[in-house]
Design brief:
The chain has 210 residues and is α+β, with helices and mostly antiparallel strands. It contains seven helices and eight strands; from the N terminus they run αββββαβααβαββαα. The structure holds 1,3-dihydroxyacetonephosphate.
């Protein structure tokens, strides 16, 4: 995909997320890997009204080289790209249900949302750990996210929201959407002892769909 196509796709997908309430105000940020660096949403921008030519451009060392000033969460995105060479994009949202789960002290911090449905497992993977709370934009979050991302495609930032990676921008957005749906199911079923997918079923999904 050319840089120009990726710019347009990022703005389209971001607008779709915003239109469906996955992001409000100026919350959330999205990045995508280019051959010579990264595209990133500008800081304080609404995902609903991005302009392709104003997206921030970063070089391979994450230095700002074009467009508007990048998101204050560059560290968060860099942690994923450096931990996961296969990541082509990273999506951070404050989507309501996933963020609600991130505020529950009783969940398992290693894997707060159990395998309830196949698409959560296929898109998000086997585990999605909780990373402790850091102030938005705090560079101190980078090592914690990096360590968690070595073995997970997505993490949940405590009292903040999800960060999800994918091989492509579309994959990362789909995974962020599946995560929000899984969080909704998890909250609906809290205290009800739902049947979970078995470890063998999870293995089968990951072996079949990666
Ligand atoms: P930016 O506007 O700097 O991208 O920050 C938004 C956000 O979601 C902080 O976590």
């Amino acid at each position: 995909m050319t840089e120009s196509d990726l710019r347009s796709l990022l703005c389209q997908l971001a607008a779709s997320l915003f239109a469906r309430g996955f992001s409000v105000g100026s919350a959330g940020n999205i990045s995508a890997r280019l051959e010579d660096g990264y595209l990133m949403t500008p800081t304080n921008s609404s995902l609903g009204r991005l302009e392709p030519e104003r997206l921030s451009k970063l070089d391979r060392d994450f230095r700002h080289v074009g467009g508007d000033k990048p998101s204050k969460e560059v560290f968060m995105h860099r942690a994923f790209y450096q931990a996961r060479p296969d990541a082509g994009a990273v999506v951070h949202l404050h989507s309501t249900q996933a963020t609600a789960v991130s505020c529950l002290p009783q969940v398992d911090p290693a894997n707060p949302i159990p395998p309830l449905t196949p698409y959560f497992v296929m898109r998000v993977g086997r585990t999605m750990p909780i990373v402790p709370y850091y102030r938005p934009g705090d560079p101190a979050m980078e090592p914690a996210i990096h360590a968690a991302a070595l073995s997970a495609r997505a993490v949940l930032l405590a009292n903040h929201g999800p960060v999800v990676s994918g091989r492509t921008l579309t994959d990362a957005v789909y995974a962020a959407e599946e995560l929000e749906e899984a969080a909704k199911l998890f909250l609906m079923l809290l205290g009800r002892s739902p049947r979970l997918l078995t470890p063998a079923q999870v293995d089968d999904l990951l072996a079949t769909f990666g």
